[in-house]
Amino acid sequence: MDPFVPFFRNAHLATIAGNFWSRPGSEDTHPLEPVIYDTGPGVRVLVHRQKTRLSQPRGHLVIIHGLEGSSSSGYVRSLSHDALHAGFHIHRFNMRSCGGTLDLALSNYHSGQTGDVLAVIRKIRETSHLPIFLTGFSLGGNVTLKLAGELGDLGPQLLSGVCAVSTPIDLDACARRIDHPSNLVYQRRFLIALKRRIRERHLQAPDQYTLEHLPKVRSIYDFDDFYTARLFDFGRAADYYRTQSARNFLDRIRVPALIIQAKDDPMIPFEVYDLPVFRENPALTLLTTDHGGHVGFIARSRPRFWIDRVVLRWMGERLTQLTGNTQPSASVSL
To answer: pTM higher than 0.85 for the full model?
Structure first.
């Protein structure tokens, strides 16, 4: 793996830069094709598909965005750009209600909602024999790892590898970290978007999406306690976090999984990764960096988007392994 030499050593600057840094686009050369998938009763999701122009495609890459993101999030666009040129068909997945899809399903998304992406992956597998990879960012990383764990021994039948970047594998610890005063700018941004979504849903289904609790919501934990947990019948936020955190599924993962995490991530306390499973489960590769922030990883030299080349190099190594040699490594720190 290429060592990460950060442009920013300040975690907050790295996080903000990762969000606002100009990203390469691929839409002009590889047009977006909107595909609607029926994933359950009354539920449809939007996936933006792009096809590589290489005559011999190497595989499919499904990308899941993070909290309040979409298929147009910067990290999705730049990874798609590089992966298309590397020979992969791209499937930019929008979670329920994201990317302007409020009318496709009356329910919103949550951090452990794996059924929709599983349905999409199965549809891809029905029409293609090529390897399928799944990459998730932040909340999408939790969905990715939880799904791989839920599949267990069946995972390799559908997926050739999964990758998770800046993943809140312990939802309770991460929700409380976001509520720390040092993260006020992120908390406010998330809460504004989450509350706006409830107000939009209220216009569709006022009995289901009531507004009475919105004045009480002053933190991510509050939102999950008053809305997410209740809307999805988890009970309270503590039960939602306990049942949907990816850390509880890591030991069941049987498909090669690359987990990339910066030690200075302001939203994810690094101690949540101090788990025996990363030493005990040979399917897991934990790649850590001292710097990078949350979904930041802007490199000092070009190409700037270190995550993209690491993920693609790892996918290439995995394709080589599929032709028949070694097993994935255990843990590495850059």
So the answer is: yes
